[in-house]
Amino acid sequence: MDTQVKTDIDSLRINGERLWDSLMELAQIGATPKGGVCRLTLTDLDKQGRDLVTRWAREAGMSVTIDQIGNGFMRRPGRNNSLPPIMTGSHIDTQPTGGKFDGNYGVLAGIEVVRTLNDHGIETEAPIEVAFWTNEEGSRFVPVMMGSGVFAKAFTLEHAYAATDTEGKTVKGELERIGYIGEQVPGDHPIGAYFETHIEQGPVLEDHDKTIGVVTGVLGIRWYDCTVTGMEAHAGPTPMALRKDALQVATHLMQEVVACAHRHPPHGRGTVGMVHVHPNSRNVIPGQVKFSIDLRNATDALCESMDQDIRAVAAKLSADTGLPIVIEQVSAYPAQVFHADCVDAVARAAAKLGYSNMPAVSGAGHDAVYMARLAPAGMVFIPCKDGISHNEIEDAKPEHITAGCNVLLHAMLERAGT
Fold first, then answer.
1. Which of 181, 201, 224, 316 could share a disulfide with 389, CB 3.0–4.6 Å?
2. Residue 5 pLDDT > 70, yes or no?
3. β-strands 288-297, 336-337 pairing
């Protein structure tokens, strides 16, 4: 590569206004009165969104392949098309009260990368691909991250096809109905490296006044159901010393869930989000309390340490109070550490472009989690206003949208070769 070409590559920037306009146009499909988006997976609105995105891809000279679970792969050829593509992407389905950026930004940022390369006549050594994954949100069908999960063989195509919504409609039937059930077998599609650009969906970058989060990995998750059993009794005649109050013991343990997270910094998370009190009567001492526990941390070892911590606390609390406490794990998602080469590529791009940045972890799942099982992967975060996502008021600054896409462009070019 000669010096002039290298200088041109280093000075390359995306068209931020064009990217923003594309985001706003896509957001009109399923737009809500409060300024958000409701575009549930495999609905007519999802078809409209897919149709628009694939039209933009074809207009940018990309070929489009759809696989059997409806994942879309939009490809820009390279000089050496025998090389596995450098891929980016995300999803365009939303929550029922979703925002304009979650998922959508990652897909349209990829298309903007291709548009920018086209504008400047830049050819990459490896092909570039932009993916949109089916049913990342899981708001209509479960499991979440369905398309990327099937692609990565985390579960079978048949399992995904059989999933039903509240009206009994199946994934397979809805894919057929909207015309997005392709022929390619999920996973029969090489990937050289994968990058995903996303709003942070949390407040850390904004709190630290940083433009770019260099994502090192995704937190592991352990979900539990906890049951504390006491004895119902009349609130008036039963003296305090003779009560078996399940709620008082349960609330003590709920506080320990939060304390457990604090005992495992900096990425420990502990949440109680659901509580059921029996018999839930004003003048009856609660006889049983069931509640959820959500524990998260950056490595599986730390998740296991938190597991043992909260179980030990529960055992001591049960022994001290005489009330049985049962903690049952109901699901677990392993932590995912991203590939050092991709993480470093994001960090180098942010530094080269002069954007303030910091290491970050994702507390939420993304399609990049499954892609990291198949190829080197990394993520780029940008701030979102007040850290709010999965909400119609979700918002991001145009300059941050542009910055994240510029970082994506240069990280991908480093891997794809020019």
1. 201
2. no
3. unpaired
> Both tokens of residue 86?
């450098």
The DSSP annotation for 114-144 comes to HHHHHHTTPPPSS-EEEEE-TTSS-SSSSSS
User: Which residue matches tokens 């064009």?
Assistant: 18
Tokens (6 digits) for 182: 């392709």
Q: Which two tokens stand for residue 254?
A: 């709920």
Phi, psi of 230, rounded to the nearest 5 degrees:
-120, -135
Separation between Cα atoms, residue 139 and residue 72, nearest integer Å: 20
CA distance 249 to 170: 43
Rounded Cα–Cα distance for residues 342 and 230 (Å): 52
Strand 269-271 and strand 288-297: pairing?
Answer: antiparallel
Q: What's 268's DSSP letter?
A: -
Q: Per residue in 37-87, pLDDT tens?
A: 999 999 999 999 999 999 999 999 999 999 999 999 999 999 999 999 999
Amino acid at 21: D
Cβ contacts of 70 within 8 Å, gap of 6 or more: 42, 134, 147, 175, 180, 181, 182
Quote the DSSP letter at residue 75. E
> For the whole model, what pTM was predicted?
0.92
* Residue 300 backbone dihedrals phi, psi, to 5 degrees: -65, -35
Conformation bin of residue 94: beta by default, left when phi > 0, alpha when psi is -120 to 50: beta
Q: How far is CA 293 from the centre of its chain?
A: 20
What is the rounded distance in angstroms from the CA atom of residue 161 to the CA atom of residue 170?
Answer: 6
Question: From its phi and psi, is residue 110 left (phi > 0), alpha (psi between -120 and 50) or beta?
Answer: alpha
Helices 340-353 and 398-416: crossing angle, nearest 10°? 130
